[in-house]
Amino acid sequence: MTTSTDKSFFDLHITGLGYLNRIREVKPKKGDSFLACDIAALNGPSDDVSYVRFDTRVSGSEAQHLVRRCIEAVDAEKKVMIGFRLGDLWTDIFTYSKGKNAGNPGVSLKARLLFVSWIKVDGKLVYKAEPKSAETDERDAREPDASVATDAAAAQQAPEPKPEPDAPAAEAPVDEAADAPALAEAESF
After folding, report:
1. Which residues of 142-156 are buried (b: 16+ CB within 10 A; e: fewer)?
2. How far apart are CA 11 and CA 148, in angstroms?
3. Is residue 186 scored above 70 in pLDDT?
């Protein structure tokens, strides 16, 4: 029997698509500041979409770079939809301090934003992740490609749901061929 000093982990990831909101730099009393954002993820049947809100800490330099590029569009109240992968989901229980639920307990879903597979601003594709190289782990090489294809197809089929108070309405189907010129402008959005 051999012993190994390497630790192994079991990853639980959430993959989906949703609207990017509230991009901000968080400065805790203790520790380093970090980039955070909310994602209103689409959930349920395409003819009756609901939203699940995730409060995320943006992890990794590539994800941070991409989210920072979206700050201007989000501040201008444009519809910024992303394909994403989250990890390390946990809940935060809190008490509402104001509004109609003041004094009642609430639950916030928190996670780390690990990967952004694509970004659309007002229906125009402005970023799409490149497939990983052949040298990477086979599982990791397949996973992003499948999520990009699945997320992009789902975004095209997203219906016009009933608007919710804190989430923008889903965009109409978009022709990917018409979005090809937007890739050339990816650095300028």
Report:
1. ebbeebbeebbeebe
2. 19
3. no
